[in-house]
């Protein structure tokens, strides 16, 4: 299967990056190169683009899609949490724009053997970077019942988390849980049929929770945003597309903290903490896809775009 991923909020993202033809731009979740192509097409010969992704299939697909732009493109296989270090290795300390599209690609969802899908029976995998050893199977079989409950509750936001964890713990005493199909049947048994039959797939939230835990998605996001804002040039922008409330909440909170980092009590007449604003939040409310885009791409429905602009010298 070819690496395909319909770029969500494409026009809105490109517009909000405020691309300078001779600027330096980074896509930390390169995927198949959808957003990247549109960034590169707006760069002059002096411009530079760096794409980062941890998925080998994405690297190959994006490399082919972007080859027309020649030497202005550099592609690195890594996690975006290592962005500053990887840029430093190629002689870059500051950039004019950063893009993150945090959605799972259509390729990853639709390639059955990757184990992200809850619509097919395949090995429990869910690794975004297949160089790592740990898989979703290890979480399902090795985590304590309490830890399973915690991640399904916190990352899946499933009100049946406790019962799902209990059913998983009970089932794996008989034999290890090896496949997505086995796990789905266990989850179905933990949720009253009348509640899940009209509420989407019963395993959706648990699969989301396992994927987030395995790939440390929220931890990586939370620990990377401040550093990414720091490597922006003056007037540079960071655009982040999220797909669920947990990611969006992190982005919203960190953007606001960078805009107003003051920790002084509200009744202080002047700021004495010394924390200075790093810029402004461009999107007071997140940008959402229009009806036309949702009709063309159902996976865009939950997407939100937030934008922060760097200002340290004002």
Automatic annotation (TrEMBL):
Protein transport keyword on record: no
Catalytic reaction(s) noted: cytidine(1402) in 16S rRNA + S-adenosyl-L-methionine = N(4)-methylcytidine(1402) in 16S rRNA + S-adenosyl-L-homocysteine + H(+)
One Pfam family in the UniProt entry: Methyltransf_5
UniProt EC number: 2.1.1.199
Domain of life: Bacteria
GO MF: rRNA (cytosine-N4-)-methyltransferase activity
Keyword Transferase: yes
Record's keyword terms, sorted: Coiled coil, Cytoplasm, Methyltransferase, rRNA processing, S-adenosyl-L-methionine, Transferase
Binding site for S-adenosyl-L-methionine: 33-35, 53, 80, 101, 108
GO cellular component terms, A-Z: cytoplasm
GO biological process: rRNA base methylation
Coiled-coil segments: 204-235
Subcellular localization: Cytoplasm
Principal subcellular localization: cytoplasm
Recorded family membership: Belongs to the methyltransferase superfamily. RsmH family.
Record-linked NCBIfam families: 16S rRNA (cytosine(1402)-N(4))-methyltransferase RsmH
Free-text function comment from the UniProt entry: Specifically methylates the N4 position of cytidine in position 1402 (C1402) of 16S rRNA.
Protein name per UniProt: Ribosomal RNA small subunit methyltransferase H
Organism: Anaerobium acetethylicum
Lineage: Bacteria, Bacillati, Bacillota, Clostridia, Lachnospirales
Gene: rsmH
């Amino acid at each position: 299967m070819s690496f395909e991923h319909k770029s969500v909020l494409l026009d809105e993202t490109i517009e909000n990056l405020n691309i300078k033809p001779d600027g330096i731009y980074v896509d930390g979740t390169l995927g198949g190169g959808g957003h990247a192509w549109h960034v590169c097409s707006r760069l002059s010969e002096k411009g530079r683009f760096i794409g980062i992704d941890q998925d080998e299939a994405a690297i190959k697909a994006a490399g082919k899609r972007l080859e027309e732009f020649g030497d202005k493109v550099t592609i690195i296989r890594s996690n975006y949490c290592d962005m500053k270090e990887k840029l430093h290795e190629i002689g870059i300390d500051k950039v004019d724009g950063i893009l993150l599209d945090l959605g799972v690609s259509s390729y990853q969802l639709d390639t059955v053997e990757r184990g992200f899908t809850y619509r097919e029976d395949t090995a429990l995998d869910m690794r975004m970077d297949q160089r790592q050893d740990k898989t979703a199977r290890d979480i399902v079989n090795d985590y304590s019942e309490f830890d399973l409950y915690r991640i399904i509750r916190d990352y899946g936001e499933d009100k049946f988390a406790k019962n799902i964890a209990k059913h998983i713990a009970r089932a794996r005493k008989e034999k290890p849980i090896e496949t997505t199909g086995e796990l789905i049947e266990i989850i179905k048994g933990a949720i009253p049929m009348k509640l899940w039959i009209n509420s989407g797939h019963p395993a959706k939230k648990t699969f989301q929770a396992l994927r987030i835990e395995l790939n440390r998605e929220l931890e990586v996001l939370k620990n990377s945003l401040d550093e990414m804002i720091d490597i922006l040039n003056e007037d540079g922008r960071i655009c982040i597309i999220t797909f669920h409330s947990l990611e969006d909440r992190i982005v919203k909170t960190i953007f606001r903290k960078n805009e107003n980092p003051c920790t002084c009590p509200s009744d202080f007449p002047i700021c004495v903490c010394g924390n200075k604003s790093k810029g402004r939040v461009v999107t007071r409310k997140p940008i959402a896809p229009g009806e036309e885009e949702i009709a063309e791409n159902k996976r865009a429905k939950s997407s939100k775009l937030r934008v922060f602009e760097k200002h340290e010298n004002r």
